[in-house]
Amino acid sequence: MKKLSLTALAAAMALAGSAFAADVQIYGLIDTGLSYQHIDQDKGGNDSVNKFQLRGSQLAPNRFGFRGTEDLGNGLKVGFLLEGQFGSDDGSLTSGRLFHRAAELSLISADYGTLTMGRMGALRSGFGSTGIWGAKTGPFSNSAGEYIVGHKYIMPGGFKAVDNAVTYKTPVMSGLQLHAQYSGKLDNTKQTTEREFNHESDRLWALGATYSSGPLNVVAVLDSVMYSQKTSQPKDSLSFSLEADWKFNFAKVYASGMAFRDVKGSEFQGHGVKALDSLNSGIAYDGYSLELGADIPLMGGTAKVNAGWMSADNADTNADETTRLAFAAGYVYPLSKRTQLYSAAGWIRDKSNMKGYEGSHPSAAEAIFGLLHRF
């Protein structure tokens, strides 16, 4: 990462003669590689497909960003974070937003904590400065490739950035830090006419806690999506997620779980296998998820293993059950402090009794290989 004063940045942008007081960093990550997938709908006949692709963001999402702080005196700082995401295989901007991952402005106090406003990561994400559940809580973070299991393929919702949000986090107190978040309108691009901080819009509240002491790290998040009353799903969702990891001499071991209720099927990710989606996007689900993984030092690099299980039922009828089982393994080798060579493989299988798909077992397997560089 190259650290620049804002004066140097302005010069690089041909704005010579400007002078600023803030301290700014330019940073980023680019990950590109090859992917092979075998997808089976389990519907009989010619229902399987093989894909070989060049893909970006396989082990970690590609990104570029600007962040900085200015000391205001009396123990206060103002900080900002602007972070975009892109496809390195075609150069496209993710979701069409310049700053898809974060557009944050923060007031920072060593004594009283940090208040952040703007577009930012939900607490149960790895986005921006506010996501507390991401890369540090599992061997494959939220996911790898399209079918290599991480949190978002086992646990529904919340692994993304949210609009119109305010987040407060306390100072760290003997290893403990508390977090509170509210979004007055989750996604401006999907709810274009609905008012912010109003029951017409999907809104979010979330409470979180992180604790670190020696080899132990713990993260907990309680969150709820308050669905728009203009939709057919008036019940608010409620989810509780808990993760703990311990760094042994021989490995770092991760364990996490989630209990959820009234979560819309549209908030589950990675459940579409070719033309078959094992969850109905129009209804809400109750259920549980479990995940267990490890990072293991091996031959100068890190071996990664992960397994996950999920069960979800129709929240109203306890029918339309879907269960998911997934396994993944990989290896990351550092070529330098900023560059990694990686490979990984994963397998996911769903079992659904949704009407029309009773007894089906759609599955997908994937293998990836690539190069990741941070700058």
Protein architecture, described:
The protein has a single domain (2-374), classed as Beta Barrel (Porin). With 375 residues, the chain is mainly beta. Helices cover 2% and strands 54% of the residues. It contains 1 helix and 20 strands. The termini are close together. The model is unreliable at 1-20 (pLDDT under 50). A hairpin with a 7-residue loop joins strand 2 and strand 3. Strands 2-4-5-6-7-8-9-10-11-12-13-16-17-18-19-20 form a 16-stranded antiparallel barrel. Strands 14-15 form a two-stranded antiparallel sheet.
Can you tell me the CATH superfamily? Porin
Give the strand order of the largest sheet, numbering strands 1, 2, ... along the chain: 2-4-5-6-7-8-9-10-11-12-13-16-17-18-19-20
The main β sheet shows up as: 16 strands, antiparallel, barrel
Gap between N and C termini: 5 Å
Topology as H/E string? Answer: EHEEEEEEEEEEEEEEEEEEE
**Estimated share of beta-strand residues:** over 45%
CATH topology: Porin
CATH architecture: Beta Barrel
Name the quaternary structure.
Answer: single chain
CATH class: Mainly Beta
Question: What is the approximate shape?
Answer: globular
- DSSP helical segment count: 1
What structural category do the secondary elements indicate? mainly beta
Our count of domains comes out at 1
